[in-house]
Amino acid sequence: MARQTLLALGACFVLTMGTVTAAPTDVADVFPPNTLAYAELHNPAELGPQLAAIFKGTPLEDSIPFIHSKKDGAKTLAELKAKQELAQLALLMSPEVLGEFRKLGGVAVGLVGFNERGDPELAVAVLTGDSAAAGLAARAFVTTSQDLRRVGEVGKVPTFQHRTPVTTYDPSGNPKLATDKLMEGTYEPTFAYVPGLFVAGTSKTAIAPIIARFRGDEKDSLRATEGFKTSAPTYRKPGLFFYANTPELFTKLDAAARLRGAPMDLGFFAWLKLVTNPKALKTVAGCVQFRDGGTSLVVGTRFDPAQKSPLLDAFSGPAVKVDVLHHARKPASFAATMNLPEKDRATAVLSLLDALVKGSGELGRLPSDVVKDLDAKYKMSVSDALLSKVRAVTVIVPTKQDLAKGAKPIPMFVVHAEDATAAAELEAFVPKLVAEIAGDKDAAQPSTETMRDVKVLSLAGTGLPWKAAVHYARKDSVLVWGLDRKLVAAATAPDAANSVASNNKEATFPSGALALVGTLHVGDLVASFETKPVAGGPVRPVEPLRLPPGGGNVPAHEALQKDVEKARAAFQTALSELPPALLTAQRTGDELRFELFQPKVQNDGLTPLISAGMDWFDKLMGLRDPNQMNSGYYPPRRFPR
């Protein structure tokens, strides 16, 4: 009888264990279905070795000799102590950390909503997977952090927030800790750990849905939604995957702005709404992944075919050939070519230009307004007579232009007309267009100069926004317009050997029907943010990098400051030596997909850049006060509104 009882109890135990809900192994399963925007480091097991390939051949491949060589070269206490920050940075990329990263189940961050004040609610979830070290680190964080205290719970899982100890004194003057119950903050960093999951967020409200789904208390998830399921097969690859439910996101952003009493400072979303039409855009998804020794950023947008979108309509033209890009000479920071739609060409172009101008925040007439004024002034239809005859456009941002003092650089444009007659008509209309932009009553007569057997026409820049003369030239069915007459003359004829699309040994443009082809020099893009115009004065450098709390900028010896600037210049030089990235766009039905591929990233490709960056960081940390260094970073106790 006792034996039968034991067998029955054992059977009940086994059956009961079988009904326990297994913890999710896909990090997207712990985010709620109404998550507005989501980003994830997908498949750490495959991503880890790919990340390690970035640091192959760099000092970070084995940081021990690198750090100690820096220590051996230190000449002051400040320099020696600065190596602590350098070593901590190197540890993040060490083989041991990357090895543990491979064992993680997933890492993701999501915008799960907005609170009643219009503040964004964010949550970060880490599935520790098979990494015991990650679980230990999470447990150590919530138990050994001196000012982290339990303030509440979600389904019996304790939640923690930062609380500074409050000391009181008894009548005898002896210090005592206040024992009042800790109150839960409604909007401040909040953490929780349950074996298998570490989660952090802007409040308990933000992390509660994550905990509930990990525990099995809630079954629905982001991964089960239609938009996510449609996007995941194409873009959810080893790397950084991102996804946004754009209709809901735009609606919630507008509602949050009303609650805050002011629009959120999210210029990109405002621009995206104008260019795409928020009613037409269904989802945005994409990924950053490694392939062919480089890094690929892919962004895909899906549209509702029942709604009009300026962006989608503009990319409805025939496939573009790379040969058209041969009009863009090296060096160029950016160059791209696209064919215009064959149907309703002028309407599509003006709609996109209007949206771009609105998104830029520039005040004044829209391009469509200028066309209407030209129609009325010259008793013609600019759209029918001219715009409809433009087959393709190439936009070029030269690395350097020969401009007059005080002129504002703007791109060059290569207009590909339907035929030579159409190009001649466009050329004849340029003085009228320039006069309209400048606010002149009558069109000026252009001057003429022959350069390299090309007749270049020029119009004075008086009254033009960019404060420089306009130069333009025509050859066959091509019309080039820009501010540097030499570059304008050169761009009238294609030159495959010297174009931005030539001799790219690291990468080639993908095959298939492409709606846009181009190149982008990332180094030039980053350098463009290094200086900014200051009202009432010359161009000045941007403010120096703000150091973390616990240290700070101190008066430094002039030689040390020069060392920092020298290291910064070396980093910029290494960045500028990266090969140009390839930019493409492809339309398939109601989906528009953009890709930016930066070659030469893995397998020693970034060694000069990483080495220069580490040296710059090392020199920068050497400026800190050795008497105040250390202490670590204390996160804010409240989020700013």
Number of helical elements? 19
Determine the strand fraction and express it as a percent band. 15-25%
**Class by alpha and beta content:** alpha+beta
Large-scale geometry? globular
What percent of the residues sit in helical stretches (DSSP H or I)?
25-40%
Question: Rg from C-alpha positions?
Answer: 30 Å
Question: Please, what is the average pLDDT?
Answer: 85
- Low-pLDDT runs: 1-20, 531-551, 629-637
In whole angstroms, how far apart are the ends?
Answer: 69 Å
- Report the strand count: 24
- What is the makeup of the main sheet? 20 strands, antiparallel
Describe the structure concisely for a colleague.
The chain has 641 residues and is of the alpha+beta class.
Describe the structure.
This protein is α+β, with helices and mostly antiparallel strands and 641 residues long. The protein is built from 19 helices and 24 strands. It has a 20-stranded antiparallel sheet, sandwiched between helices. It has a two-stranded antiparallel sheet with strand order 6-7. Strands 21-22 form a two-stranded antiparallel sheet. Strand 11 and strand 12 form a beta hairpin. The radius of gyration is 30 Å and the shape is globular. The termini are far apart.
